[in-house]
From TrEMBL:
Name assigned to this protein: Ring finger protein 121
Keyword annotations from UniProtKB, A to Z: Membrane, Metal-binding, Transmembrane, Transmembrane helix, Zinc, Zinc-finger
Record-linked InterPro entries: RNF121/RNF175, Znf_RING, Znf_RING/FYVE/PHD
Transmembrane segments: 20-41, 70-89, 110-132, 144-161, 271-293
Main location, first listed in the record: membrane
Domain of life: Eukaryota
Compartments in which it is found: Membrane
GO terms assigned for molecular function: ubiquitin protein ligase activity; zinc ion binding
SMART domains xrefs: RING
Amino acid sequence: MDWVEHARMHAKHRGHEAMHAEMVLILIATLVVAQLLLVQWKQRHPRSYNMVTLFQMWVVPLYFTVKLHWWRFLLIWILFSAVTAFVTFRATRKPLVQTTPRLVYKWFLLIYKISYATGIVGYMAVMFTLFGLNLLFKIKPEDAMDFGISLLFYGLYYGVLERDFAEMCADYMASTIGFYSESGMPTKHLSDSVCAVCGQQIFVDVSEEGIIENTYRLSCNHVFHEFCIRGWCIVGKKQTCPYCKEKVDLKRMFSNPWERPHVMYGQLLDWLRYLVAWQPVIIGLVQGINYILGLE
């Protein structure tokens, strides 16, 4: 019966080679043009690009969740959105409450670590299934693969989402505190004993070992709470000094080899943003062009 269905499929599509080639060309051309436009948009108007991308990252999966009845994902999405909305609200208030920067970075760092661990477990589950190790635990291949792919998706999706929200909050808070502005000079002078990320006093000297956290000095000689500057660089996606905008040497900052995967994972999330936010839009655009041209 399989060869009969195969023959019917070939008979149905016989003579459509030219149309299929045209559809492939439309797909390639649309991908190239869309990529060029997105790059130009990001370079010329980064704030609007980031806001639109964040909105799509947040809303597009919701559409598929409701349509496909993924209620577990919907529940987690609602919980994440509720807490993140509260944290974002706190980060955008003026005047900024002194405890807010710590609250923001702790929340997004927590989500970052959970997404990182979830993604690793999901990837390992997929690899174990491909190598047949799931049979040792008497787990069906389809169940093991579904479990791994689900965890991988959760980890990557919320990892991307929290980094975008964290970047937005970091900009708002730093600008409100006054030691950082996206363009122009800082509105306040930075004292040697004040952290430019959170605006709080630094009590531990750079050469001393702190009980809770250490103090870190960048190559530009500005000092920060270690927790703040790590949150600024990894979670907030900033690679410049919060005060003078000198480029931060991440390799020097994260000299411990166990910490470097966090930097690489962050770069992976930035790349995946395009797939989650813009790929469905581009595919929909391609389908619309094919429909207008009468291609099926």
